[in-house]
Amino acid sequence: MLRYAPSPIGDICLDNLQIAIVNYLIAQQKNDKFLVRIEDVNVVDMEEGKDTEIMMILEKFALKHDLVFHQSEHLNLYQTLALRLLKEKKAFICKCKDENSSCYSNCETLSQEEYREIKESGKPFVIRLKYKDVDNFVILKVDGKPSYNFACATDDMISNIELVIRDEKYLNETEKQNYIKKLLGYEKETHYIHINTTKDTPSVKSLFKEGFLPDAILNYLIIELNPNAPKKVFRLPDAIKWFSLEDIPKKSNYFDLKKLQQLNREHLKLIDDKLLSTLFGFADANIGKLAKVYLDECSTINELEKKIKLIFQPKDFSSEFGEQMKRLSELIFEAPIIENFDEFQNFLIRKSGLSRDELEKPLAQLLTSTAHGAKLREIYPYIKSYILEVAS
To answer: Strands 34-38 and 2-4, how do they pair?
Structure first.
């Protein structure tokens, strides 16, 4: 079994999501189970709903889990196992409340009488594990909660996690966690792989708000770890076939917004036209095609939505080209249905008396609310059935 163990503090950033994706991919390749463990046992002032938010994000990326639990559900188990180690004299009570205190060397040799005095007095204490002479670390804190390493090792043990794939920042914790499992009698070997995730990443939520697609974000995070992938634009099922832990670079990359924007543009092109139109309040393939006309200058849903809104918003006839716009609007309302843009343009030239050059800017302003980069010839086939609404 493989696991993803997020902490419900703040928003999930891309580097954290990257770990979830890798674990999911390898679980799929190995036909193994994928566990989600919410590490909430040591979280202070946890924001309500963050755990639910984590699960919703995983769902958006189609990272399906086989099992999910909160560490806080296992609090009694951690305490029981810590007390067991204490009885087996593999751990000891320490009066030094500070986890980083250096006074604990005196506590290791406390007598039974001293233990009894501590218990009867109600004075706070921690339980430390006998480790190296200079590093007898805490496994149960003053408040009765486990340390990170003790909770992590215990949960990996009871969940029978065979492969741990995590960020390189946890590399130094590996030896302690293996030591804890050994003392608890766990004989199976756990393999650890520490990877260099993408650095300086924004939160997933912020990218959703900007209009980035889950498929594009996933594509970006995977390609950062497998830069020689057989395809540059792909979806999750494709990556399951060829993703390789061996191909992950030894050095981290830094977040590249332009690269993500380009991938988002490519994934927007792949979306079904009618489905794309629903993002802008329509159910019409032509509106999806209209949005794609702007993908050479837009890369997110938000940017495309602004273009669509400019086309369908009420027009301002008090602008520089107001009089011409008003006249063109009247002519459009009188016009028959015209199939192609050249005929439409010629009709307006003939009826308005404006030359082709004189017509260009007021018509662009009327149809798109901008006199520049209007792409009228490209967009006309997709707005002609809405032309009365657009020109009003």
So the answer is: parallel
Report the side by side order of strands in the sheet with 138-140. 91-94, 126-129, 138-140
Beta-carbon neighbour count of residue 330 at 10 Å? Answer: 13
Listed as own residue / partner, the contacts of 243-250 with beta carbons closer than 8 Å and 24 or more positions apart are 243/22, 243/25, 243/26, 243/29, 245/22, 245/26, 245/165, 245/193, 245/195, 248/195, 248/196, 249/196, 249/225, 250/196
Which one, of 248, 250, 256, lies nearest residue 200 by Cα?
256
Residue with tokens 């008003």: 326
pLDDT of residue 135: 73
User: How many CB atoms lie under 10 A from the CB of residue 54?
Assistant: 23
What distance in Å separates the CA atoms of residue 180 and residue 140, rounded to the nearest whole number?
12
Nearest Cα neighbor of 379 from 347, 344, 332, 350 is 344
What pLDDT is stored for residue 103 in this prediction? Answer: 54
- Distance separating alpha carbons of residues 273 and 129, to the nearest angstrom: 61
Under a CB-based contact definition with an 8 Å cutoff, are residues 154 and 110 in contact? no
Q: Block means of pLDDT (10 residues each) for the chain, length 392 residues?
A: 95 97 98 97 84 97 97 96 93 76 60 69 84 81 94 97 96 95 95 96 98 98 98 97 96 96 98 97 98 97 97 92 95 94 96 95 95 88 96 93
